[in-house]
Design brief:
With about 230 residues, the chain is α+β, with helices and mostly antiparallel strands. About 40% of the residues lie in helices and about 25% in strands.
């Protein structure tokens, strides 16, 4: 489950630790709506399957799968209009969009599955083979494997913000601290919220079980999804 814009805003304000003016507060609302809309579209594009499953059973069947692969589209943060759309504001927003594209997009292809549980039914008997139909048990991403870590958003973002529009090295410039707070909110939410509450689901296994329901086969290639 992706974090809400309100949650990201609350985390950002707590990390920033300074009072925000009305314009900055309103900007965070628009920014995090775009971040979360892009996050949801990216999550919806992710599919997985092709796990090598094994297990057994007559009537009820259970097993687990390993290996397989996960695919997904490029993360794209939607553009949005904010007040006068100053060149500095546009550049600031595009910097975050670029950083998120670089950090989120590789995650699906980097993901390595551990053991994924499957449950289903078996038409096999103790002495004859029969069809096995199973589906993976909905399980949090964090419990079935791992992928690339999206840390480092702030450093990529800051690299796009250069003089004369931005002077992040100036002690009087608060943009760097603001960037750190926003990036931290996103990274923390990815690790502590998204990975632990987003479930893998829907990956099917359709094969023939040997007598006793024993199976060693591959799940469907790409019908698994995140929810």
């Amino acid at each position: 489950m992706i974090p809400s814009p309100a949650t990201l805003k609350t985390k950002t304000k707590a990390s920033y630790g300074q009072k925000l003016g009305p314009a900055a507060d309103e900007y965070l609302d628009a920014l995090f709506k775009a971040v979360c809309d892009g996050w949801q579209s990216w999550q919806d594009s992710i599919k997985f399957g092709g796990l090598k499953a094994s297990g057994g059973g007559v009537g009820a069947w259970s097993g687990s799968g390993t290996g397989g692969s996960m695919t997904g589209s490029t993360y794209n943060m939607p553009t949005f209009s904010f007040k006068a759309n100053s060149p500095q504001q546009i550049k600031f927003t595009k910097g975050l969009a670029s950083a998120l594209t670089q950090k989120f997009t590789p995650y699906p292809s980097s993901f390595k599955f551990g053991a994924v549980p499957f449950l289903g039914t078996s038409g096999a008997s103790p002495s004859s083979s029969g069809p096995v139909n199973a589906i993976n048990t909905p399980t949090p991403l964090s419990a079935v494997g791992s992928g690339s870590n999206p840390s480092g958003i702030a450093s990529i973002w800051k690299s796009t913000l250069t003089p004369p529009d931005f002077d992040l090295g100036n002690p009087q410039c608060k943009s760097g601290t603001f960037i750190d707070a926003i990036a931290s909110a996103i990274e923390q939410s990815f690790q502590a919220t998204w990975l632990t509450t987003t479930m893998i689901t829907g990956n099917s296994l359709k094969t023939t079980g040997k007598p006793g329901g024993a199976v060693a086969g591959a799940s469907t290639g790409s019908d698994g999804k995140l929810a």
